[in-house]
Amino acid sequence: MASPRRRSIKIHTPEDFAAMRRAGVLAAQTLDFITPHVEPGVTTGALDRLCHDFIVKRGAVLAPLNYRGFPKSVCTSVNEVICHGIPDSRALADGDIVNIDVTIFLDGVHGDTSVTFPVGEVSDHDRHLIVETRVALDEGIAAAGPGRPVHAIGRAIQKHANRHGLGVVREFIGHGIGTEFHSGLQIPHYHDPRAQTVLVPGMTFTVEPMLTLGDPACGMWDDDWTAVTLDGRRTAQYEHTLLVTED
Ligand code: MF3
Ligand code: CO
Ligand code: CO
Questions:
Q1: Is 76 helix (H, G, I), strand (E, B) or coil?
Q2: Which of 77, 82, 81, 80 has its CA nearest to residue 98?
Q3: Are 160 and 191 contacting, i.e. CB atoms less than 8 angstroms apart?
Q4: What is the C-alpha to C-alpha distance for residues 188 and 141, in angstroms, rounded to an integer?
Q5: Which of 31, 125, 158, 230 has the most other CB atoms within 10 Å of its CB?
Q6: Which residue spans within 69-217 are E strands per DSSP?
Q7: Which residues are 106's β-sheet partners?
Q8: Which spans in 104-238 are helix H?
Q9: Which of 75, 111, 142, 84 is nearest to 241 (CA)?
Q10: Among 103, 169, 204, residue to substitute to test ligand 1 (most atoms within 8 Å of Cβ)
Q11: pLDDT digits (tens, 9 = 90+) for 26-71
Q12: Which of 112, 100, 101, 102 lies closest to 20 in space, CA to CA?
């Protein structure tokens, strides 16, 4: 999600890192927990409820609920939905793809991660989209590190997408994260040479590329949350929360 430029970038302490690791682990465990439930016939609302109960039992909360008016606990983005899909009574069908985006708030800090799941048997095109979006995230992460500029991340993601004939969404970017859900750093997933901030140990941010089979141009439903491809073709996303260490 975009945030205004020129906000200060927080440098986290080892104690903050420990807390963020706990939040990140719990977010990842939520995705592991929900994986076997992502089957034809399940509704996105049921997946939301299952994640909610899993997290509340563990003494944490899901950050999206009531965040700027978001009405549910996780985001479920199906097929042509790029991100921020709102869980509802829609039942997933064989051949759909769905991204589930989980953001935990635990001990004062956030952990934000997402995966795109195939529902039942998906087409070769959709499998290609999902697999290469995952690899693009890994390429972006590999380009990050102390002393590296932020634009190296988007350059690596864009290069991977180009090589595989996929589009890169520009309207939604990675973000600083920590005590706040969205703060400070902005991480474009395309090559933007203006993103000159140099990464230093203590920074924490997400990388969350959204890749498309067709044109990455983006529209918005009138719920003001659900972002979709204008051409109606499918899109996938993966996300990790990162912290920059000395090495
Ligand atoms: N988790 C999303 C992200 O990666 C943000 C969701 S905001 C919400 O930044 F309100 F839609 F949940
Ligand atoms: Co995020
Ligand atoms: Co997220």
A1: strand
A2: 77
A3: no
A4: 13
A5: 158
A6: 75-78, 81-83, 97-106, 109-118, 167-168, 174-176, 183-187, 204-207, 210-212
A7: 109
A8: 124-142, 151-163
A9: 111
A10: 103
A11: 999 999 999 999 999 999 999 999 999 999 999 999 999 999 999 9
A12: 112
Q: Give the residue, by CA position, lying nearest to ligand 1 atom 3.
A: 1
Amino acid at 233: R
The tens digit of pLDDT for each residue in 7-20 reads 678 898 888 999 99
**CA 145 to the chain's CA centroid:** 19
Nearest CA to ligand 1 atom 11: 84
Contact 239, 140 (CB under 8 A): no
Specify which residues 227 forms β-bridges with: 83, 220
Place of tokens 């899909």: 85
pTM over 0.90: yes
- How many A from CA of 101 to the centre of ligand 2? 8
The mean pLDDT value of the chain amounts to 96
* Tokens of residue 172, six digits: 């939604």
Q: For 116-140, b where at least 16 C-beta lie within 10 A, e where not — what string?
A: bbbbeebeeebebbbebbbbbbebb
At residue 133, φ and ψ (nearest 5 deg) are: -70, -40
Nearest-CA residue for ligand 1 atom 9 is: 1
| Distant-in-sequence, close-in-space partners of 152: CB < 8 Å, separation ≥ 6 | 143, 144
Among the bound ligands, name the one nearest to the CA of residue 177.
2
